[in-house]
Amino acid sequence: MEKRVMTVGKRRRGFIAASALLSGVLVLSACSSDEGGEAGGDGSKKSQNQADEAAAKDASAAQIKITPKDGESKASINNAAKVTVSAGTLTEVEMETSEGTAVAGTIAGDKRSWKPDAQLERGTSYRITAVAKDSKGREAHENAKFQTVSSANSFIGNFTPDDGKEVGVGMPVSINFDKAITDKAAVQAGVKVSTSSGQEVVGHWFNANRLDFRPEDYWQEGSTVTLKLNLDGVEGADGVYGVQQKTVTFKIGRNQVSTVDAKTKTMTVTQDGKTVKTIPISAGSPDNPTYNGQMVISEKFKETRMDGSTVGFTDEDGKGEYDIKDVPHAMRLSTSGTFIHGNYWGAKSIFGSANTSHGCVGLSDTKGADDAKTAGAWFYDNSLLGDVVIVKNSPDKTIAADNGLNGWNMSWSEWKAGSAA
C-alpha cells in the first residue's frame, strides 16, 4: 500500500477518517480542523470521501432488527427474543448464553424472521448474531446482547388443575404466586377463566399470594374450562414483573358429590343427582371431630404415610399419637391434614357405628390397598380430583374456605367481594 506523508501547518492538524459499516448503514466519524478546508494538498480527504461513498453504494440493502435491544436487562422470557429482516432474507442466526450454551431456534419459511424454539430462562444473559443477504447477495450483520428478567424481579403463578386433566365439578382454578402481589387488579386483569357452559366465573383473593376462580355453583358436568395467563410484563409489585404467557384447558367430568353424615356415620355418593352407593364410615371422634362443610379432593394417593406429629397430634414426649406408613386409598380434603381414606387397622364393626378418627373420614379397607372389593378401594377408583365431599352433622365448625380448595363454603356475595376486578 502506498504511504502518504502529510505536511502539518502551524495552525492545522492532520485528518483521520474512519468508517464502519453496521447493518448496511454507513457511520462516519472524523475530527474537523480549526479552520476547515481539505487536509493536505494531495487530495487525501477527497479520496477518502470517494471511498466512503463507494462503500455506501455497495452496502447491503438488508436491514436486520434484533429484539430485545442491545443492553436490555429485563427482557421477557417468552416473546422478547426475535430477529426480523426487511429488504432481504436471513441466512444465519445464532443464539447462545453467556456461558456459550447454544439456544435452538428456527428461521421462518419466508426467511424474514427467526425465534427461539423454547422459552428462555430467567436471569440469564444471551447473545444473538444474525446475518442476512439482500437481492444482490450482499451481506448485512447485526449483534445484540441482553439479559432476561431475574427471578428476584419476576413472579410466576403455580396453578391447579393441570392442562388436559379431567376433574370433578368442584375443582376451582387456584393460583399461588411465588411473590406477594400488591397490584392485584393488574394481575387479575391478566388472568382470564372461562367455561364452555357460559357460567360467570369470578376471581377471589385469599391473600397477597393466592387467587382462586369459581362460578356461583359447581361447574357444569361435561363442560370445558379455559385458563389464560397473560402476565408477561405485568407489574405485580414494585419492580416485580410477571413472566407467564400460557393457555390451559381442562374438562369437567360427571357430577359426583358425596355427603358424609357424621351423625348417622354413612356417606351417600351421588352422580348427576342420583344415588349410586351408600357407604358406612367412621368420622372424627368426639375429641377430634371432622370439619363440616364442602371440601374438594385435591390429591390422591394409593398408599401414603400419616404421622400425627405433622398435624399437631403428639403425646407428652412430642411423638406423634399415630404413625401409619401405609394408609390405603387416601384422598386429601384440606391443607391442614383432613383426608378421606381407607382404614385397615380399625375393627370392621366401627364403620357405620362409631366415630373414632383424629378428624379424617375412614372407610373399611385392607392392608396393601390391593382388594378392589373394599369400600376404600371403590371410592378411590370412582373419585376424581375436584370431586366434592360434604360433611354435615359434625360437632366441629365449618372448614375455612382457604384450608384446601374449599372456597365453596363462601356465599357468592362473599366470594365476589374478594375480587380485585
TrEMBL record:
Entry annotation: catalytic residues: H341 (proton donor/acceptor), C360 (nucleophile)
GO cellular component: extracellular region
Compositional bias ranges of the Low complexity kind: 46-61
Top-rank taxon, per record: Bacteria
Record carries keyword Disulfide bond: no
Pathway(s) annotated for this protein in UniProt: Cell wall biogenesis; peptidoglycan biosynthesis; Glycan biosynthesis
Family matches, as Pfam families: Big_10, YkuD
Domain L,D-TPase catalytic: from-to ranges: 256-392
Region (Disordered) location: 33-61
InterPro entries listed in its UniProt record: Big_10 (IPR041280), LD-transpeptidase (IPR050979), LD_TPept_cat_dom (IPR005490), Transpep_catalytic_dom (IPR038063)
Keywords: Acyltransferase, Cell membrane, Cell shape, Cell wall biogenesis/degradation, Lipoprotein, Membrane, Palmitate, Peptidoglycan synthesis, Signal, Transferase
GO aspect biological process, one term: regulation of cell shape
A GO term, aspect molecular function: peptidoglycan L,D-transpeptidase activity
Signal peptide region: 1-32
Descriptive protein name: L,D-transpeptidase family protein
Source organism per UniProt: Streptomyces boluensis
